[in-house]
Amino acid sequence: xxxxxxxxxxxxxxxxxxxxxxxxxxxxxxxxxxxxxxxxxxxxxxxxxxxxxxxxxxxxxxxxxxxxxxxxxxxxxxxxxxxxxxxxxxxxxxxxxxxxxxxxxxxxxxxxxxxxxxxxxxxxxxxxxxxxxxxxxxxxxxxxxxxxxxxxxxxxxxxxxxxxxxxxxxxxxxxxxxxxxxxxxxxxxxxxxxxxxxxxxxxxxxxxxxxxxxxxxxxxxxxxxxxxxxxxxxxxxxxxxxxxxxxxxxxxxxxxxxxxxxxxxxxxxxxxxxxxxxxxxxxxxxxxxxxxxxxxxxxxxxxxxxxxxxxxxxxxxxxxxxxxxxxxxxxxxx
Length: 334
Description:
Oligomer: single chain
Radius of gyration: 19 Å
Number of helices: 11
Enzyme class: oxidoreductase
Number of domains: 2
GO biological process, one term: tricarboxylic acid cycle
EC number: 1.1.1.37
Protein name: Malate dehydrogenase
Order of helices and strands: HEHEHEHEHEHEHEEHHHEEEH
Organism: Amphibalanus amphitrite (Striped barnacle)
């Protein structure tokens, strides 16, 4: 089962962090996701150095976080001239940088701005810390992960085991919604979510959930659609004030901590992630991944799908393939 309580309750694990400490970079640390994500990473006992990068305000964010009574040393870097310095010695690079969604915008609407940001950040990371695990949050993840891959290929340092699209928020949401339906602690729920990270490409495998969930077809369809549309639910609720930032920061920190635990040699760490894959005809696909010291240790695949879930996969593939091509074409042309 995924350890959904791993973030703030890491105090009990502090002994592990004292032995194996790591340098983590948050790229886009002054933004709506970046600030709460940085706060969570400051509290993770595996982190000894926290490097914060953004184009504005980062020294202030770093100064603020540095007053927190945890051991991690925080350094702020601001602007393109300090980009490479922010990445020196980093083992995990988390990228939430980019513009947020606003009402009426799809993740694809964000493409042009965020594609350039991810390209430039990955180009610097490929040069400065090519062996670091890269966890990409910037939307549209279905396209930005292929962008990262192409950048690393051009730099001659590509390792598919070390580049991850963070789809963890879809799992977090599925667990929360199913916990509500079952009337159980959502921390005890584990529902894998496969595919991609936008609309119909988000495929919750309710049939593989623990504890088991049995819903009539209409309620299963409604739950699936709510998980797929949950980002829009938040955008509408914030009424123009932003998108999902706090829940995304939690999910991003959960995934980053899982990477750090795997780096420390802890076994059995499983997270769903959008990675290079041959599980389906799509060259990138999110599935449960066993993490290890070198990144992806084993792709755990799809498991046994119901007919309903098979149709969801079939429906997701055309959109995934188009998004992937869009990312690859962007790097080829830019």
